[in-house]
Every structure is written in C-alpha cells, then in structure tokens.
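Per reviewer request, we include the raw input and output of the structure prediction for the construct analysed in the revised manuscript.
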Amino acid sequence: MIAYVFPTRDRHDEVRRTLLAIDHLGSHAAIGGAEVLIADNASAIPLDIPGALRNGLPVHVLERSTNEAAAARNACVRAASPQVEWIVMLDDDSAPLDAGLFDAIREAPPDVAAIQAEIFLPRAEGEPQRHEAGGLPEVFIGCGVAIRRRVFEELGGYDATFDYYAEEYDLAARLIAAGHRISFDPRFRVLHRKVSTNRDFSRIVRRLVRNNAWVQARYTPSSDLFADLWETVSRYLLIARKERAVGGYLAGLQDLIATIADQPRTPLSREQYDRLTGLTHARAALHAAWKHKPFASAAVIAPGKNVKLIVRALREMGVETAVLRPGQTRLAERADVIVVGTLSPGPMGDAAADARLQFPAKRILLPWMEIGVRPAAARLAA
C-alpha cells in the first residue's frame, strides 16, 4: 500500500488539480491500495475537499497551526495507515502522469530506499519537452520521489530546521550513510506544474545558500569542506545576481554565519560522499563508455550541476577535456566525444536531446545512468 503525501499553503486550486490527476490513475489494487494525506500549512482559508476521490482513495487533511514547510510531510507519514509501506512524496502542484510508479515500487531491489521519478515540466505546443532541474544520481527532488516508510521513520524524516530547499539533500545523505541506495526509474513519471504563487525568489535564495551549506557542513569529508563551502556561497551569489535577489543572498549568508557552528558534524566516508555528489556515477558511466569504444578527447557541453566532477572523472581516465561555452561548436566537432556537463537528471536529459539535434554525427555520452536505464529524453543520445 502507498500513501501520496504533500504539504500546501493557500493554493487550493492546485491541490484540486493534483487530486484530480491522482484520481485519473484509477484503481490502486495492484499496489495494495492507497490513500492521500495533505498537510495544510496554516492556510488563510482551510482546505475544503471531499474525503475520498472518485476512484475510492481516502483523502485526509492534517491542519497545521503554523507553516511547518517541508517538514509537515513528517506529520502525514506518522498519520498514514499502518499498512502503508511506501510514501510517494509530491508537491501540491505535482502529480504522477500514469501508473508506471506501481511497477517501479513493486520491482525495487531490497537495498533501494527511495526511487526518483522522471519529472517533467509543462510543455507548450511546438516546444521541446523539458524537465525539472535539481537533484543528482542519488539525491531526489521532493516533488517526485517514493520512499520506504520504514526507512523514512527510522531516520526521523525531514529535518524541520531546513524549512524548504535542500532538505532532500540532507535526507539523501542520511539514507546513504545508513547503507541504503537511491535509484532512478523512468517508469515513475511526474508532471510538475511549478506554479509561481507563493514563490519569493529572495526567500528561495536565502534558504538555498544557508541550507546547501548546512548539508556540506554536516556531511562533507574534512579534506573537501572548505573548498565545497566556498563553491556553494560563490555559486549562489552568481544566481542571486542573475535573479536580482542579492538581498536574499546576503540574508542567507548572515543566517549561515550564525548557525553553521551548530550543525551536527557527521561526515560521510569518501565512498559515500562520492555517491552523494555523483562522482561515483560519473566515473562508472564514462569508464563504461570508454571501455565500449575508447576515446582520447572530450568536449563537455551545457555545464551545470557538479560539472567539475565530470571533468575530474574524464581527466582521471587520461582523456583530454575541455568545457565548452555556447557558440564553441568548432571545438566540439574536433573532440572524439561530446559529454553532457551536468549530473542533474532532468537537465542532463534535456541537454542530451539538444546535443543530438546540434551534433547529429557525434558520439554523445551521458555522465551517469542506472545500469540499463536512462531518462527518457536522454535516450535520444544513445
């Protein structure tokens, strides 16, 4: 049995759209049944929705007296029926596109504690399909992941101090430290409508800079800690400038300075940390591609999440590597292979599809994949 769980605040129409999408999945008998639990984070007007969907799934609303942000999910998990084995985490503006998640859950290996969805964004007519940004090979996005309930509860769920943003990185690090694995399964498909209501980018940047640095302060091995912290605060300054949210960035930096010493220091082992960052996955995928057909030079395109680790993996193999910027197509043509320069699954698939159109004669490599599994949009790069 599964439980769909998501928090909401003052977005009643989005809740109804998400419930309608879950209703359209029909019977959940194949997965042992299901229920929906919604945490209403102190909306100005409380949610007023039916107690069951037309497909028979019961719907429970947990009224929270304050805005508990992402941690309100914890209350929903505690309130779930005893028979629930998997928690399908959504946002109030995201929902499964079909029942493919049933097979993903039923066939999950015992060591897999969380299954990432392939998360799509709405597509305008005539536009290419795009994916949600964020995440890593073993770091999920909260708007589309299934987590074993037993493991979630054993680890204490989401850390309430994070509010929103990067709480998934914190939980993913604890899952890895506890000996579990996080997988990606493209049969689990989610549409994230990503509405703008209640999205304040200054507040978002404030939380991103603080929370991502918290994750590093907690889990990064000592030898990498200073460099990784510096990279994080530098990266979000660039983002803040681009989004005209420098005020939020400076507030987040002040929050970080005031709280970083209080973060529990439980660094991961080197092997665990390389899994969290995606370096392990980049090494495995690129070495497998080289073993299949050796190459001496690589052009890395569309640099994004943890591109430095992709470059590192290539150079460890002795491959001459250059990171290309837009317009440097001539350099790409001279390289033996083109490598997509992000470890974030959604942008990786989008960049691979774009590269196949731009460089139809070139061999295009993905920097990670499950064994035998790739995001749907990235299959064009095969």
